[in-house]
Amino acid sequence: MVDLKSMRNMARVILVLGLSTGHAALSIAAERLRGFATDIGETSVSGISSGAFLAVQFHVAHSSIVRGAGIIAGGPYYCAENSSSRATRNCMKPDADHPVTDVIRLKSLTDALARSGAIDDPARLQNSRVWLFSGKADAVVEQPVMDALFRYYRSYLEGERIVYKNDLDAGHAMVTESYGKACSYNGPPFMDDCDYDAAGALLAHIYGPLNPPSAESGGRFVEFDQREFLPGRDAHAHSLADSGMAYVPAACESGRCRVHVALHGCLQHRDQVGDAFYGHAGYNRWADTNAMIVLYPQTVARYGWGWPFWNFNVVWNPNACWDWWGYDGADYHTRNGVQVKAIRGMLDRLAEPRPGS
Fold first, then answer.
1. In the chain, how many domains are there?
2. Parent domain of 31
3. Model confidence band, residue 104 (pLDDT cutoffs 50, 70, 90)
4. Residues 233, 111: Cα–Cα separation, whole Å
5. Is the CB of residue 228 less than 8 Å from the CB of residue 342?
6. pTM of the model
7. Angle, CA of 66, 72 and 74, to the nearest 5°
8. Listed residue (27, 56, 33) closest to 119, CA to CA
């Protein structure tokens, strides 16, 4: 029998995150993602909201290849511990009765997962760089949650390797220099104009001094087939869209490049907001001048029974959030998590030689 209480709790996660419904169909323009001979050891990742939680998961699970992470309005690794109730309370709006998950406990769980082989050795985290952002006006993921993430990363990283910016009156959003709603706005499309270039700041912290961004994006967008990176080519069963987006600068068509993975939040997938995130978050102009492909995987709204209908595989995610509380399996936070594996597969593909080379 379906646990209706658990189903309601899952719904609360999505509603509190403020994210919406939609269903993605594979565009006839989607192509097979091809190799660009990228340097996988120079990979970085960032995300906002549910994408921020997944960015942390991917960073910890694959610390051997991730040079750094930028986290906007997320929380500590494995914060929800497979509980939708903990996700909505302890990991978003903590209070005296529902405190943020203890960081010492989460570090202990992280180290245990490494010993079991489920994630990379977390000692590798000390070689990476982390940039954190929390808006003072964020009414969705409150600052104490990001404070806990800072303490979690501080248990592995030293000194200036970690930066935490928490002094802007920003809402729950991807913060940009000139695109989006008013800075303190909390709502769709979760893009706030705060006269601050978060994408540029996090990339510069991860990679060091960068060349100035291009005046306008000069590369091309590639819509690629995400299905081949999912079990049975069934992306929808795991709340991923059939196609994702990648931004390829002209210099990366033939030159050596690295990859930054940028993960949207709930209600920010392409079917919901068009190109608001992948076109205007701020990454692409920096990518043009700094030898960087930007990978924009896409989620899709998913709710109800899976297919075939006799399989018990309900996925309740009507607002297209990334999985950071276990809606798609108990190992969602490890290398075996379906969404984590899919993104790693995309990175491995981009690292393959160019066709014909």
1. 1
2. 4-351
3. very high
4. 33
5. no
6. 0.90
7. 90
8. 56
Segment 30-63, tens digit of pLDDT = 999 999 999 999 999 999 999 999 999 999 999 9
| CA 73/CA 173 separation, integer angstroms | 8
The position carrying tokens 């990978």 is 295
Given a contact cutoff of 8 angstroms between Cβ atoms, the answer to whether 142 and 154 are in contact is no
Residues in the chain: 357
- Cβ pair 224, 241 in contact under 8 A: no
Residues 295/38, Cβ–Cβ less than 8 Å = no
Q: Which pair of structure tokens corresponds to residue 10?
A: 């899952």
Residue 80 lies in a domain: yes
User: Is residue 356 in a domain?
Assistant: no
Residue type, 46: S
On whether residue 167 sits in a domain, the answer given is yes
Q: Judge whether 165 and 121 are in contact, CB under 8 Å.
A: no
Residue 14 lies in a domain: yes
Contact between 166 and 150 (Cβ < 8 Å): no
Radius of gyration from C-alpha coordinates of the chain: 19
196 and 165 in contact (C-beta within 8 Å)?
Answer: no
Positive or negative: CA dihedral 250, 55, 135, 326:
positive
Q: Which residues are identified as catalytic?
A: 49, 138, 172
